[in-house]
Amino acid sequence: MVVDDHRKIRDPLAVYLRRHGFDVRTAPDAAAMHMLLRHERFDVIVLDVMLPDGDGFDLCRQIHAEHDSLVILLTALGESEERVRGLELGADDYVVKPFDPRELVARIQSVLRRRSRTLAQGAAMPPVAVEEIPAQPPVRRYGFAGWVFDVDLGRLTRPSGAPVALSEVECRLLLALLQHPNTVLSRERLLDLTEGERSGEPAFDRTIDRQVSRLRLKLSDDARQSELLRTVWGNGYRLVADVKVLA
């Protein structure tokens, strides 16, 4: 879905995306977007941050909380703070206006590839005869300081039992930290762990500190646990917790 209140951007972009094989719906505002979301599922939502009836950042957060759509924000040139804010709120990527539609196609294909790899992680298994199919294996989960992270579901649960919405980037970042607890991980190492197997796709080095900051905020359940994810100045970041693999 392409959500933009400017018809001269929205309609030609939809035509261009259809020529590249995408099934596209368009919405001129937040109300129309919500109407479409009530009736259809969308893999990707290209969302303008400036809509007449809604703030794109709030809408991005709402989409991730209520739907499984990926979100690519359209932001204005020079508004770097807005782009950072969007990533902190869980946007999967952003494109700066004015943009080449070829770039947007590449961004869409990139986030879709990352989503496909995430869904396929741990799912591949050799074919077996029907009578040999084993019981469904338990979802891989990590427990740390009262928190629980379901890897395959991409779901984080607070010690209180309340769920915490995570973006795909945050899921990869948290998994890397959980696999290396109480270990200082440099920015370069975190990039290797979260993006290394995605050669050819844009890395997130320009915002790695922002991503760590937003994940730290989500891990701050209360004052006692505000230091779960610590900055080791000049070296990187460390998850300070005993991590257990749960059944």
Automatic annotation (TrEMBL):
Modified residues (4-aspartylphosphate): D48
InterPro entries attached to this UniProt entry: CheY-like_superfamily, OmpR/PhoB-type_DNA-bd, Sig_transdc_resp-reg_C-effctor, Sig_transdc_resp-reg_receiver, WalR-like, WH-like_DNA-bd_sf
CDD domains membership: REC_OmpR (cd17574), trans_reg_C (cd00383)
Domain Response regulatory span(s) in chain numbering: 1-112
UniProt keyword terms in alphabetical order: DNA-binding, Phosphoprotein, Transcription, Transcription regulation, Two-component regulatory system
Molecular function (Gene Ontology), one example: transcription cis-regulatory region binding
Domain OmpR/PhoB-type positions: 137-241
PROSITE patterns assigned to the protein according to its UniProt record, in alphabetical order: OMPR_PHOB, RESPONSE_REGULATORY
GO cellular component: cytosol; protein-DNA complex
Any Gene Ontology biological process: regulation of DNA-templated transcription
Ranges annotated as DNA-binding: 137-241
Name of the protein in question: Response regulator
